[in-house]
Amino acid sequence: MIDLHSHILPGLDDGSRTVEDARELARRAAADGVTAIAATPHVRADYPTRPEEMERGVLALRQDFVEQRIPVEVLHGGELDLVMLGSLDDDALRRFSLARSERYLLLEFPYTGWPSGLEETVADLGRRGFVSVLAHPERNREAQADPGRLAEAVRLGALVQLTAASVEGRIGRSSQRAAQRLLDAGLAHVLASDAHTPEIREAGLATAVEAVGDERLAAYLTVEAPGAIVAGEALPGAPPPRARRRRRFLLL
Fold first, then answer.
1. How many whole angstroms separate alpha carbon 106 and alpha carbon 61?
2. Is the whole-model pTM more than 0.90?
3. What are the pLDDT digits (tens) for 73-131?
4. Which of 58, 137, 161, 199 is the Cys-Cys partner for 109 at CB 3.0 to 4.6 Å?
5. Counted domains in the chain
């Protein structure tokens, strides 16, 4: 499995504090079947991470994991605040792209309030050659009330990343219900940990994969779609939405 959202780089944001934290996250992820983790530090006003800081951190962790014999590849990335996008030129966006795909950007969806101009942002980035990957919208109150509001952004090319802890129910029933509704509607594309520290949203996807309740869909969310993103390719065809398959099974 590939985990495309983590705060594993030590000392850059509210994630890993030390290299020991990062090692522990990686070891737990490896034990769970994860082979690669994207380091996606916050890029926002309170944590204004620069591309070169992220790049140095990725290089240092890669070297450390080789020395420590931790079998997890560290990939480039960044979790970009929607407000900060206007201050980043296309070169910076390419450097912050997931796995240096120069195509896929992880955008931080706010926890409260519907982001102003979301569809316009998705469309504008698309015209510039970028694909928006919306991080954890199931934790947003407005999205929880009406997950279907994301459909237009998805129609315009956005992808939706769900957090493992939401799918499992570890961060509340509201997030879990919204995640389930997005899965049922075919509006979810990637499952990731959003790991911060060994104590806060720890690494690992296996429990969430079980909670998805559909082996084919889980493989798409954790292997097929993330693999295409890492390669900078278009996503493969998704399996039918869960709700549609449930109706078909009932008819049979």
1. 20
2. yes
3. 999 999 999 999 999 999 999 999 999 999 999 999 999 999 999 999 999 999 999 99
4. 137
5. 1
